[in-house]
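=== RUN LOG ===
request id: a7f3
mode: sequence -> structure
chains: 1
length: 211
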Amino acid sequence: MGEERWFTRYRDIGARRSPRHFSWRLRHFRFNPQSTILDLCCGDGKYLRLFRQMGCRFVVGCDINRALMADVRWAPVAQMDAFTLAVRSSSLDVVFVSDALHHFHFNDLGGLLSEVHRVLRPGGAFFCIEPAPTWVRGLAHRVLFSPLSRIWAKAGAMRELLEDEWETYNSWLTQWPEGIAQIEAAGFTRRRLLTDWLYCYGEFCRDGGTC
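=== RESULT ===
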């Protein structure tokens, strides 16, 4: 899929999702309003907006795709490569990432996680939200990859995006414990790992801290 079509499909999905869809996910985490938070791979900034609404004062987002962040006005954003973050070492309280780790090959995750570890202060928190291999998600896949997906525009957009990223997405679903193990191997201590019908929610602390 070309970059322009991918961008259009991504926006098609996001435009049809209520802010409640994303705020509901954040219920699993505790954010101190005084914390310095980086939204890694922030995309169109939907979580940055929610952090602001929650009263978090020091938030910034970054993404490799500048176009995705073009309309963000509610928080500072910067174009950055997740493997070479232009952020001072030990300067952040929280790094947050949602629906992004599964875009990377497992062989590349170590470099990304090393950067997350570097920019977090000792005892800082790494929060992540990623797809979980649940029966509900499996059922959703059956619908998306059936003729029914042609009836609903959003379903068709999701199908195209999944087909484009299927290699890494499916690897994450079938081997996600390996992804969690890599996070821990990068110097993080697991504090909580929860799953709901569609997602897993991980809370990790740098260097065995209590976050």
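=== NOTES ===
The mean pLDDT is 90.
The first helix runs from residue 3 to 15.
=== END ===
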